[in-house]
Amino acid sequence: GRGAPQHYPKTVGNSEFLGKTPGQSVQRWVPSRSTRRDANSSNEKERHDAIFRKVRGILNKLTPEKFDKLCLELLNVGVDSKLVLKGIILLIVDKALEEPKYSSLYAQLCLRLAEDAPNFDGPSSEIQTSQKQSTTFRRLLISKLQDEFENRTRNVEIYDKHDNPLTSEEEEQRAIAKIKMLGNIKFIGELGKLDLIHESILHKCIKTLLEKKKRVQLKDMGEDLECLCQIMRTVGPRLDHEKAKSLMDQYFGRMRSLMNNKELPARIRFLLQDTVELRENNWVPRKAFIDNGPKTINQIRQDAVKDLGVFIPAPMSQGMKMDFFLESPFMPNRMKLDRETLGGLADMFGQMPGSGIGTGPGVIQDRYSPTMGRHRTNPLFNGHSGHIAPPQQSQFDMGPKSFVKSNQISLRPAQSFLLNKNQVPKLQPQIPNMMPPSAQPPRTQTPPLGQPPQLGLKTNPPPIQEKPQKTNKKPPPAKEELLKTTEAIMTEYLNRKNLTEAVGGVREMKAPKHFLPEMLSKIIVCSLDRPDEDKEHASTLIHALRTDGLITGENFMQAFLNVLDLCPKIELDVPLVKSYLAQFAARAVMAELVSVAELAHPLENGTHFPLFLLCLQQTAKLKDREWLTELFQQSKVNMQKMLPEIDQNKDRMLEVLDGKGLSFLFPLLKLEKELLKQIKADPSPQSIYKWIKDNISPRLHTDKGFVNILMTSFLQYISQELCMVEGDDQLAAPSKEQLEQEKQLLLAFKPVMQKFLHDHTELQVSALYALQVHCNASGFPKGMLLRYFVNFYDMEIIEEEAFLAWKEDITQEFPGKGKALFQVNQWLTWLETAEEEESEEEAD
What we know:
Keywords: Acetylation, Initiation factor, Isopeptide bond, Methylation, Phosphoprotein, Protein biosynthesis, Repressor, Translation regulation, Ubl conjugation. Pfam families: MA3, MIF4G, W2. Among the domains are: about 45-120 and about 135-280, Serine Threonine Protein Phosphatase 5, Tetratricopeptide repeat; about 480-665, Serine Threonine Protein Phosphatase 5, Tetratricopeptide repeat (Alpha Horseshoe), CATH 1.25.40; about 665-725 and about 740-840, Serine Threonine Protein Phosphatase 5, Tetratricopeptide repeat (Alpha Horseshoe), CATH 1.25.40. About 55% of the residues lie in helices and about 0% in strands. The chain is mainly alpha-helical. Helix 11 runs antiparallel to helix 12. The radius of gyration is 34 Å and the shape is flat. The longest helix has 27 residues, at about 815-844.
């Protein structure tokens, strides 16, 4: 039931608390450390309390920047039972409900825990979804959310049934209950986006919210309809696909009929109207309704510059921060003068416009502009009128636009801003370049040299009128005219091969920036049906235009993609158009006009397949294989992602690359297939080492990928040998004979492992990741990972440093890290302690 056991985490804002009758006395929360523990309380309960305290601390610190680090910390707190896992879920859900703005971050956390948290359901469990097997975490999470959903309106209705007006405390509790009700719906939607909650469950929720309940009047359905709008805003775009179109049409048909029903409160009708319009607008929200989820500090700075024209500087030393805000040239003078009256630095920061900007969960952000918002009553801004005095622009003056937009707030100065001339100090540029050029006003009306800028303010400044600048420039030529000129230049160039003349012609065109991609598209298309020599000349012209600064690599990529879109039409006249485009791309890569990664990005998931492979083929043909291999490896492009989704696996990738003559890009892929065969044919260490020396380039011997394959091949061979001998299931506990055989095989391979791993900590970490992935693929048989860790340590194959480096390393490249840490955490703690003791003994 809902009565949580004693050792579940107690949270003040929990739904259990809100479920109590308002009049009932509620016990005040007291920090558990300060309470006198019951003499009979077990160590187990104390340990659980410590875990939950640690989890609360981690959740309070959760931000986008610290996400990966804190996820690992959370997995490492000691999740050793279903009870602890359930407690952690209660805390996460409670946080997500209280802070709906950060739902997406908590949903990402749940996704990570669903993948990496230990599973306490047996493998034979029948609880299954159509997508993937349910884990304990996923099952408990859905159960908790279902409970919250089914009781969504209970806590709000408790207060609505009162005949007497609500007290201020009851009003507050009702508001909290409503926030949590909508927060739960939003959280369900965010989890749906990540496939943690199946679409069928989301549809069931929507149907439940839309249903007309028996003995419930329409006007009392407001809470459900508000929840419906919330779930549609959150996950509607994901549900609105071809298969579910008929269902979605039915939902929105019902919403339209409710929207026009006068029995519903006006607020609910407008909410429904906004949601209906959102779908009609292809789920693109109006700016005012964009959901501002958690952001990194850099994103906040960029948004401030882009949306408000306010530049928030990067962190500076503590001493500089105040000076910047107090003395910077774009601060109003009153702010500079009243330093003493504001009560010190802390008070000044508390009243600074924009100081309310925060990033982490728990930070309350107002809905006004960060530059005005909650500071409207501040005397610095003359709160009764909301005016800001605009100083006249000077060469050092940043102007009023950095604070507010002139069309939103009156620029007429308030009486309190009229300063005596004697009070006005000379403005000196303290940090002249702290604002981006885009945020600076045009520098007009510069006073004569040596004369201070005049800052006396008029009581009635003339109204600001924006007049179009008078220019003598001719209007830019029309698009058709530019295309004709480009075609004429291209025809002339391909006939006479005069590069300088062609570049000069393009320069004289003075084409606007937005036309450059179309111009390049025309250059490419003009040469497609001509001989290869002319195509090469067209590439040379494009590179010459880049060298002269007339075009950029981005312009070329846009042109390349534009021509690709025209391919179906062009193919009727030029069947090999994609091969010819591959030549243009290859030459662009060779000339460093675009990088391999920039070329790959728009072609991911088999878009225009096999164009990307054709580009690589042409590059290898025009340059050489070694140069291309090095360039490709530096690009970090994931080749599997470049194939159609159905072919995105290693075996199929090797097959495709072989067919295109590009397998040389992945020398280790062939090794992966061949090495295990070689070990099976002759498992003696001498033969294995000789085969590696003869077949693998020495420069790959210190490659992490090579070490990963070497270790994986040894582990697969050992596993197969043990299973073949006994014919047992891999997940069953190994017998004494099997354990001994495993140890002997490891000892036999030890010389080869040591040869490639000795004195290379980073390669040893790669070997441990190979072991982690091997155990994960086998379903983490009981004790296997710990057994290998101990054997590697005792046989001196892996050193202490590498074990500890693996523990601290954060990466998503290799699956199963959370489960692996759970299995070996105790042993790693022992190793760390032993190493510290050794260091102390050596010091003595």
